[in-house]
Amino acid sequence: NTLLCRCFAFQLFVENFVHMAMSRRAQRKLWTVSSRVALPATGQQCMICTAAPLHPTQEEQKAMLEQARRFVDLLEQNPPPIAGSGFQWVVDSKATSERLANDALVKSLPLAIENEEIPGGLEQILEQILDKGARWATNDNAPGYMAYVPSGGLFHSAVADFLGTAMNRYVTIDQAAPVFAAIEKECVKWMCMELAGWTHASCGGVLTSGGSFANLLALHAAKSSKISSVQLAQATVYVSDQAHYCVAMGARFIGVPPSNVRKVPSVSKNLSMCLDSLKQLIRADVERGLIPIAVAAMAGTTNSGAVDDLEGIAQICKENKIWFHVDGAYGGFFAMTEEGRAVLKGIEQADSIVTDPHKGLFLPYGLGALLVREQFSLQRGNRSDGACMQPPAEGEDAVEDIMNLSPELTRSFRGLKMWLPLRMLGADRFRAHLNEKLALTKHAAAAMESASVPNLKIVSPPTLSIFTFKLDDGVLTGDALDALNADFLNRIHSRGNVLLSPFRSVHGTPGELCIRMAILSHRTDLHAVDTAIADIHAAALAAQGLVHETGVLRDSRAHFRVSALEDFVKDYRELARLPVWDTILAGNLQEKRVLDVCAGTGRWAQAFSELVVKDRQVKCDFVDLCSDSTTVLDGRIAHMPNLSGGQVITGDICALDQLGVPALSYDVITNMHGLYGVPGARLSSALQTMYDALKPGGTMILAIGSEHSAYQEMPKECFGISYTSDTDIMEALTLLGIQFTATHINYIEEFSASDEAGLERFLLDECGGNTFPTDTAAEKLDPKCFTKDYARSRFDEASGTYRFPQKISVVTVTRHAGFLPEMQSFGKFYSEAYTLRRQASTMQSNMIAWLRRNGEQHILNRLGSNTDQPNRPLRIASIGCGDGELDIALMEGIAHSVEKWGYSGIEFTGLEPSETFRQKFMENLAAARERGNFPPPEHFTVNLVDNTFDHLKTSVVGQGEADLVLLGHVMYYFSRKEEALKKAMQLARPGGLTVVIHQGKEGIPELQEQLLPTLRGSIRDMFTADDVDNILATGKVDRFVRHNVDAFLDISEIVKGSEDGVKIMSFCLEADHRLASKTVLEASRDAFVDRAVVKGEVGRTGGPFLLETVSCFVVPSQSAQQ
């Protein structure tokens, strides 16, 4: 030991000396040299490494983690193209330019492993190699990735994978890592119960790398259970001709002769295994002296999503004593849903089931599972008894090591990336997403079938979440038909929004090339599906030469007819060239109805007439607020006969229903650059009223300049005016629950130096509109002077032109025909439904009663006495006070006690942008005063402010000045709820309180979560009192109090199926059930009934009732917390 220490001391001296004299590169070389040292115990010469240790320091670890985090963030913020940078589907196997480009890319990268460390470390590798690798690969995480069977790549699992690898524990022996081994076994136990309903103690299974290996293990278990090794030559296995090739491959791997793997023909109607053929094959093999050992049934084929008759195959296996195996790698997890369980009926009778959590649970690649009815079947074929191994478990209470269930001994802790997200999020959230995928697939197939696109045919309809389609004109056959569909697929992909995969319905047969859509990523939502359908429709028309395909990059646009007398600027021409027009205006245009909102003087109308409608005809209505504009518009459309038959309406776009614009009536609604001047407080109303006018299946197109367009920059730089932005529109749509997609148009608006008139018109009319400063000083100025510097800064000396780079955001909204429309927010039906729902529930009345009874005890008492400013009023600030019922109830509960607590009266300030609600507030207040529950007028003041919380000025309610801040049922309306709550709490003074009243999760929110994926094709995250609780808890607000008040909704009218019941159900579920089928009505009604209780409040008659709680949070101010 002494010798070794001396050697190291001398070595350290030399290294420190040389460190001062050598270059960094030479120093690095020294550190990679080893020294020969004699080991003291044996005297043997040994090479002792003097290099830096392999394990990084804590600082190096932090730096690597930060670099990795930034890399992941960059991929999220700037995602690669869905098909990568060089991917292209091909029908044949010949080398293509894309493959050559791939080879060139690989050869250009520094992939070789060198002897020395690289100077840039991880950061250089990320930048030079991994970033290029990620961007060149197909983007499997994109919402539009619907090829093969998508893997969701859930972020929780990526974190779990990192943790499991960083801990690096050995999990296949229980004693080595008992907790981690138990986590893996819990995952298996949970899957046995969810997928097959197995709860008996002897069931089990093992996690694998994927479905291929799991299928091999399953057949190995079948072989071990049914035959001895000497009988392998006689063994036969039966698979569908639609089965994944890994099943037949697995049979060969366990020793079954390839000639004994029987491919059972499928039924042409649904591509499921033909049971008669299966029986015949088994009978023939038995007669020849062969031994059938296993039938592999499919619970969702990879090709078409077909599901075999699991019950029928189970019976055949039982009669012939054959192992019944189910390959549910793709479809198995749909058994978690009610619809999926019905489709997969019979799976519970299986001897073994394969499933892939990296498919059906949206987890990253590398996680499959084999489940077995009897765990001993795995132990029999996989137990190890090597000298270094743990002895096999014995006895009833013995714990079976994972290493004895599979050939894998050393492997990663793969169970953590399944268990962690399930434990964090709960299984119900995964169940809801699976339900959504089933609904989205039905919607996609229905939209494809209902479209008026010639020759577009569904080949195999969806059983779960896969279906196939193709173009077939009944004339082309064989290779010619394949070529048409190959071109069709390439045209879909060229738009860059979706990636699908090819599939041959009959293996290798010319003329059977189909296209396959698989919807199974948690990121694939209604936007992605509708975008895919639009691209498919447009590509189908273009592939058949029926229309020009403007979605593909094309240098020449000569096919567009442009009038020599046009006076619309380049922007409108670009909007007229959007690919979406091919889809939404396909078919008989005369049967469609168009509404142009914020039509102005008709510049977009002219572009629409000349570049979109052309020689066809459509009925078009126009709306604009400005009568001067509509006068010009009237004269302009008189020369557009292809837009005839409509009307020009002058009025407020935020109240289209009051202008006679009918609801649910328009196939297309456009608003091209018309929302800039809409005040933020009214933007949601404008969007909602336009959406309300949209017909089911209709499309709304909104265009607005992005932040860096002249439309936004010029008013801001020249006049200090900030217009409505694309972000404002998308946030408002999100808040309204209206789904949309957004794309961009990039071009340059250019004017010659001599074209002063054109430049002036563009800047003042197009970019500035009529919004100029109106104060006295500004009124004396010519608006042109404001724009000179702006225009000068955009002048290009080289070309002698003014150049304005433009980026226009195009937001597309579709009211989906396959689902029930959202409940309209206006009109008689809505008003009646709102009234009936409110009358049937005691939520509001019970909370009002609670505030009157407990206002002093639970709120004023918590606030404490006013000792800092005697004789001042109690200041209450209410955000979104509405009609004042809750606010007035609170004040009634505390009014007679405020003086006792040191306050001279009450000073109430309420924010409410609705004039109707402000009037109703004053009516309700007058009624309360008549009841005698308020102090005299000199001690009580009310100030109702026409404003929203987003535009609140401190002069109205000062920050840190209110004693009580009230938010009564308003948290729903904030897009950034946590920020809004924090901002509201800041209005309270030190020692003040914020009172939040919000609906609990019980009742309607639970029903919405259950039913909306089926009714409307989306999952709406209903914000409930539990979420308020979570925001406060995670924000370390540790002294808040939550009071829960039970209420009951009388659902007797819903149970009866009456007209009033339909109204109440529509309002509660936010889905208009007047258009629902009998089956949908019954399903919604039954969901209410399933959650109903017999009795409501004591003494209340009627029922049955639905329990729905409401919570009142009393939260001390943040400064008081500190």
Structure description:
- Helix content is 41%, strand content 17%.
- It has 1122 residues and is α/β, with parallel strands linked by helices.
- Strands 14, 15, 16, 17, 18, 19, 20 and 21 form an eight-stranded mixed sheet that branches. Strands 3-9-8-7-6-4-5 form a seven-stranded mixed sheet, with helices on both faces. A seven-stranded mixed sheet has the order 24-23-22-25-26-28-27, sandwiched between helices.
- Helix 29 packs across helix 37.
- The longest helix has 24 residues.
- The radius of gyration is 35 Å and the shape is globular.
- GO terms for molecular function: carboxy-lyase activity; pyridoxal phosphate binding.
- Belongs to the group II decarboxylase family.
Instruction: Assign the CATH superfamily of the largest domain.
Output: Vaccinia Virus protein VP39
Strand portion: 15-25%
Which runs of at least 5 residues are low in confidence (pLDDT < 50)? Answer: 1-33, 86-95, 548-568, 770-784, 951-955
Helix segment count? Answer: 39
Helix content bin: 40-55%
Number of strands: 28
Named at the architecture level, the CATH assignment of the largest domain is 3-Layer(aba) Sandwich
CATH class of the largest domain: Alpha Beta
Domain unit count: 5
Major β-sheet profile: 8 strands, mixed
Termini separation: 57 Å
Task: Give the rounded overall mean pLDDT.
Answer: 82
Shape category: globular
CATH topology title of the largest domain: Rossmann fold
Structural class: alpha/beta
| Gyration radius over CA | 35 Å
